[in-house]
Amino acid sequence: MSTTITLVIRRQKPGDSGSFFMEHQVEADGKTVLDALKEMRDTVDPSLAFRAQCKSGICGSCALRVNGSARLACSTFLSAVQIEGRVVLEPLLNFAVEEDLVVQDRPFWKAIEAIKPWLWSDKGYEHEAVVPPQVKNGTDCILCAACYSECEVQAVKPSGYTGPAGFVQAHRFVADKRDHGGKERLKLLETEGLWSCAHSYNCSEVCPKDIDIGGAIADLRSQALAAGLGRNAGGRHVAWFTRGVRRNGKMNEFWTLAGTRGWRIIFDLPTGLAMAIRGKIPWPWGKKAKSSREVRRYFRSKNQ
Amino acid sequence: MHRHQKQYAYFPGCNTESISSELDQSMRAIAPLVGIELVDIPEFACCGAGMVREQDAYAEIALCARDFALAERQGLPILTVCSTCQGTMNHALHILKTDPDALAAVNLRMEGSGLVLRDISAVQVIHLLDVLHEDKDSLKELALSPNPLTGLRIAPFYGCRLLRPSSESPSSGLDQTRKFEEIIESLGLLPVNYPGRTKCCGFDIAFVDQKAARALLRERFIEAEGAKADILVTSCPLCHNVLDGMQSQVRSFEEKKFPVLHLPQLIGLALGVDERKLGLNRHVTGWKR
Ligand code: SF4
Ligand code: FES
To answer: What catalytic reaction does the record list (chain A) (predicted)?
Structure first.
């Protein structure tokens, strides 16, 4: 028996600021979102605009939002994503819309260019170099911008934030032994929002290539700290948090906050006072886990 | 008192033990009523919260492994009331299950402390939301009608770490985003649906990139207001810290303020537990009915 679903497409004409929804019934069996879009364009409305190239999940051009989450149109089967017989298609978030499902993607490329995603090396490649597996993250990325669309920090930080795909690309070069960027590369990343990621994992969740983007960002941060960077609120936050855990087995809220904010803590006094009145006071002495001394052995010796 | 009591190794987490101690207080108040027996393990250390990982990735996994070993020694599943502890521990669990070298390395480290992780496949880290959802039918019988929350439009706030990355969650593949609503409905109360419920509260960058954090937090209230919510309820004390504590930073004097409950406080109010036992007086944005 064939299954019919309702395709709901957000349409927007070039230059218009408003959008409207168009609904159409399609047979879903064996069809991808892209198949359905092509069928719509061929049989219902030839002006329907969307992007696609390879139909194989390789070129990255067909990403759009399907029922509220970014996916590749060519690799998403209607039957797998329909909710109560409906599939809602919308353009990616965090972009201006060019027309219908096509977005103006220039900001995405600019954000990635900002981290200089090429091999920094003035030497030739006379020797074979073994590259570690982390490089695979960057080479797997098809630059589809699904992560950019779903990143909530990207939404509130339109500049000075390279975004998930930028971090993935950077991670690829930081891990590459042939690259001589080292500390300079990590420094550049700090100006591109390395410490602003809020760990929402929206990026990892939608990446069609299953790249552990959150893990890549965490690794970049720890490499920045190991290189003596992180001399900012983000780096101090991690360092003071970790210090408390190593010392007492528990994080110490007072020192994490004071260490992160430094003298700027005076700006937090009104909020701090409102919380203190309610008994929410982070005491400097903090809590201790029983036999917490033993916990120290779990940390790398250079942190001790 | 609930008919059956099930024992759990209770992992409150650092924030719940200090700034958000009302979460601990309310959890202890409702536990016997909903069939949970909390076993305290004073040796439990911080899970690392995804922060330690950024300084020393190995240490975070080792910290979690140590906590797993402590619970395993008692033969108990770990119960957490914090989405971040849940997420961090399930991340470590995922690594220890899939990377035998990591497991061997942490066991070597723990040898000196007389701890060992024997059966990693038996380790369980469960969030209170999942435990309550499993037994939601009994909530129907236990809830009072009317209760202090009757008639209010309740906006559940899942936040990030309870849901993502879903590949590391113990209930991976299930639609987590109905559980909160179903619990609220079982209590005979009214959940409201709004897009912000699965988004970020901004806690992790609240002291790092304040501008971005405030913008995120502000959005959450605009969305809740759009859904005509009266009150928010969250499964994570860190979300609570900003949703409650920093609400006045992102809402002007004239704008509506939302009381924010911890999950066990919601249960407690619906089951008729005395407000004082739930620590509601510790919230910055006051609750009155
Ligand atoms: S990291 Fe994943 S989601 Fe982001 S651009 Fe690359 S392939 Fe797409
Ligand atoms: S059309 Fe190339 S990835 Fe979908």
So the answer is: a menaquinone + succinate = a menaquinol + fumarate
Residue B172's pLDDT is 56
Can you say how many angstroms the Cα of residue A27 is from the centroid of all Cα atoms in its chain?
A: 34
Query: Which residue type is seen at B111?
Result: E
- pLDDT score of B171: 66
What pLDDT does residue A151 have?
98
**pLDDT tens, residue by residue, A72-95:** 999 999 999 999 999 999 999 999
Nearest listed ligand to the Cα of residue A166: 1
> What is the model's pLDDT at position A304?
36
Nearest CA to ligand 1 atom 7: A141
Q: What homologous superfamily is domain A4-104 in, according to CATH?
A: Beta-grasp domain (3.10.20.30)
Candidates B265, B262, B288; CA nearest to B277 is B265
Question: Which amino acid appears at position A126 of this protein?
Answer: E
| Domains contained in chain B, CATH given | 6-128 (1.20.1050.140), 133-282 (3.40.50.11810)
Instruction: Report the topology of domain A106-226.
Output: Fumarate Reductase Iron-sulfur Protein; Chain B, domain 2 (1.10.1060)
From A214-223, A248-257, B44-53, B221-230, the region with the lowest mean pLDDT: A248-257
Chain A residue numbers with beta carbons less than 8 Å from the beta carbon of B62 are 298
Please report the DSSP string for A18-62 in residue order.
--EEEEEEEE-TT-BHHHHHHHHHHHT-TT-----S-SSS-S-TT
What residues flank ligand 1, with Cβ below 6 Å?
Answer: A 141-147, 164-165, 168, 207-209, 211, 213
Query: In this structure, which residue's CA is closest to atom 1 in ligand 1?
Result: A165
